[in-house]
Amino acid sequence: MHAPGFSLEVFPPRRNGPVRTIYDTLDGLEGLSPDFISVTYGHGSQADRSATARIASTIAHEYHIPVVAHLTSLYADEASVDETLTAFDEAGVNAILALRGDPVESHTPTGVFPHASDLAAYIHRRRPDMTLVGACYPEGHTDSPSLEEDVSNLAIKVSAGVSQLITQLFYDNEDFYRFMDVCAAHGITVPICAGIMPIISEKSVRSMASRGGSHIPPKVEALLDRWGDAPDCLRNAGIVYASEQIADLIANGVAGIHLYTMNRPSTTRRIWRNVSGLFASD
Ligand code: FAD
Questions:
Q1: Is there a contact between 69 and 91 (Cβ–Cβ < 8 Å)?
Q2: Distance from Cα 168 to the centre of ligand 1, integer Å
Q3: How far is the CA of 99 from the centre of ligand 1 (A)?
Q4: pLDDT tens across 213-234, in order?
Q5: Which residues pair with 97 in a beta bridge?
Q6: pLDDT tens figures, 67-79
């Protein structure tokens, strides 16, 4: 069996936030040797959109790790995407996670790339050399009336040139396995990496689950009930939980694990310590 892939996600420091924090994150991840690190793209009026290219450049040129730059489409047009592609080229990026992004209140989308697949198709035409990655949702995207419909839209994204998918966070591996079956039924055969978000705090679990439409299974509710007010214990339990999720996914042949680091390298390292021995091929 092939060795599963292993990748990490970081986000740029907030606008006017200390730049040093990203170095702390990247230094803290040193030695993990991921296949790539992906860098999120800010949304909302406060976002510093040039930050993705800057951080990507740091990862590629100073840390010598392959990088995937996220890019959202709702508020983009062809000229702004061309400009970003040039910035990504200079940063040493050769893979893009093409996303729609979420609507921001009181901002009108340009209407040029209403779906991530429109952005992927445009980049694929302009830059066939770029590797394109896409997002996917084991429990269905919140805008879609059903998982079936969401996955049939996902197939459009794959036809547009996306050659790898990364999932939204999920806490119940059964949701992922069900999703894999639906993808197979829709002829989606590209590698699908499981996005794993460690439990950091009760507040973050509840807000991310409600924003992303992920359900909180009874096993996670039990952890939140027991240690919701004891952050260190909850973090320890979250590390165990994420490690078990990863072991089960690898045992069941997952193509790759994408760890959402939340820029908390110590948590990522502890999970890595638990699971690193599972990434070898048989
Ligand atoms: P799409 O693929 O466009 O899907 C959105 C909705 O439209 C779905 O319901 C889908 O079924 C439907 N749809 C898609 N194509 C069609 C079509 N052709 N016709 C009709 N309906 C269609 N957000 C950020 O702002 N910055 C980030 O860096 C970022 N990184 C992310 C990384 C990952 C791994 C994930 C899972 C999400 C990330 N997001 C990020 C959040 C993401 O932007 C939101 O979840 C957003 O709501 C959907 O983006 P998408 O690219 O999946 O959209």
A1: yes
A2: 10
A3: 5
A4: 889 999 999 999 999 999 999 9
A5: 70, 133
A6: 999 999 999 999 9
